[in-house]
Automatic annotation (TrEMBL):
GO biological process, one term: purine nucleoside metabolic process
Residues of the Nucleoside phosphorylase domain: 19-222
Binding, phosphate: 24, 28, 47, 91-94
Molecular function terms, GO-annotated: purine-nucleoside phosphorylase activity; uridine phosphorylase activity
Residues annotated as the enzyme's active site: 208
Pfam families: PNP_UDP_1
GO cellular component, one term: cytosol
Assembly and interaction partners: Homohexamer; trimer of homodimers.
Gene assigned in the entry: deoD
Family note: Belongs to the PNP/UDP phosphorylase family.
Protein name according to UniProt: Purine nucleoside phosphorylase DeoD-type
Site residues, Important for catalytic activity: 221
Stated role: Catalyzes the reversible phosphorolytic breakdown of the N-glycosidic bond in the beta-(deoxy)ribonucleoside molecules, with the formation of the corresponding free purine bases and pentose-1-phosphate.
Amino acid sequence: MSNIPTPHNGARGDEIAKTVLMPGDPLRAKFIAETYLENTVCFNTVRNMLGYTGTYNGKKVSVMGGGMGMPSIGIYSYELFHFYEVDSIIRIGSAGGYADDVKVHDLVMGIGASTNSNFAHQYHLPGTFAPTADFGLLRKAVEIAENKGISVKVGNILSSDTFYEDESNAKDLWKKMNVLAVEMEAAALYMNAARAGKKALCMVTISDHLFTGESLSAEERQVGFRNMMEVALELA
């Protein structure tokens, strides 16, 4: 295909599987590939956004970092959907908890992704678009988690353009709307999937809580989300 390799992805031809797991951190992608996949091949090192393809339980699976924020995952997911003929992207990331019943280490799946981003402006829609997960992926992911005895919460999450929020009460306002947690990528992923006619799901592990002050270390965030990783691998 004439569009590949891209300036951001060095993969060629059929080096990428139809389903891609996409953590934000490329080192988490490396950890997943080295820990869980067999016959692993690294297909991308451009900008150190590491990408790998291997097999899990005999099935071809890829895992690739997506970076931080909607512009970054917007680029990588767009290219995967449109240029590499990927069918499904499963984001596996970290998030900050909002809801009182969400705790550190909890697994949360975003049925919808509210956002303060202007990402949807490019589509020139005559209204407000609501980014949502693919229901088939979501339903299967919940079933896998439940069969493993993993507690999972499903609801609305926030994809924010700002990590350091200048408006001090913003988190309180989102919490009032029953938003479970905040991250920075899902809305762009969901919109890219909708526009391409493809499938996407965001599942996150709560790494810190914005109201209780609980928090995990950077190392724990990189390698400690095994429940989420294993659910995503079985889903793939």
